[in-house]
From TrEMBL:
Domain of life the protein comes from: Bacteria
Positions of transmembrane segments: 16-36
InterPro entries, A to Z: Integrin_alpha_N (IPR028994)
Official protein name in the record: FG-GAP repeat protein
Keywords, comma-separated and alphabetical: Membrane, Transmembrane, Transmembrane helix
């Protein structure tokens, strides 16, 4: 993601902390369950189950054809916008505040949408990879943190206590962009992959490995 990848706008993001929470994910195509996270980056469908809002009712997370839906019982709580291409899904306490988060990576046009900062002028048209963090409260999926364009696209993502200090980190496999046309990019499937580790700070995620 690059050392300042997890920064938005003019604000540099740096670190954070977490507690380990188990989430059970069932991946279609595999029998039984696997521990989190799940990744949909390889085009296979992913289903996960967790109770993010702690109301005792499990939500179902379904990533199919790069569209993510979240259901609780018969009710659809959230669906990814049609112009997003969601690649990966992970459930865990990414920001170490004691509640589970939904973390996704996605491809979309522009970094800011309707919330474009006033200091940015001109078109915001780049099509690149992003990392978004959500929390579920009152049946509503709310954005907790959203990256701007990532410096390097994410291939896979796990939320776990990487260094055993009791706080969660994001363990990320990063690739490289390949320009398709103009400001539109995709993952370069022939590029080197590197693993980076990020920890939540009060402003965002800061790189803790490699330093
Ligand atoms: Ca619930
Ligand atoms: Ca959390
Ligand atoms: Ca840790």
């Amino acid at each position: 993601m690059g050392s300042d990848l997890f920064s938005t706008g003019m604000v540099k993001k740096t670190r954070v902390y977490c507690g380990v929470i188990l989430v059970i994910l069932a991946v279609i195509g595999f029998s039984g369950f696997v521990g989190f996270p799940a990744s949909g980056g390889n085009d296979f469908p992913v289903q996960a189950a967790a109770d993010l809002d702690g109301d005792g009712i499990t939500e179902e997370y379904s990533l199919v054809d790069h569209c993510l839906t979240v259901r609780e019982g018969d009710e659809e709580l959230w669906r990814s916008p049609r112009d997003w291409r969601v690649d990966t899904l992970a459930l865990g306490d990414a920001d170490n505040d004691g509640t589970l988060n939904m973390v996704i990576t996605l491809w979309k046009k522009g970094s800011f949408g309707a919330l474009k900062p006033f200091w940015l002028t001109g078109e915001d048209t780049g099509y690149k990879n992003h990392l978004f963090v959500y929390g579920l409260k009152d049946k509503t999926m709310k954005q907790a943190w959203c990256s701007s364009d990532l410096d390097q696209p994410i291939i896979s993502l796990t939320i776990r206590d990487w260094d055993g200090d009791g706080l969660n980190e994001l363990v990320v496999e990063e690739g490289q962009y390949r320009r398709i046309d103009g400001e539109e990019y995709t993952l370069n499937t022939h590029s080197q992959v590197r693993t980076t580790v990020w920890r939540w700070d009060e402003w965002g995620f800061g790189l803790i490995s490699p330093l």
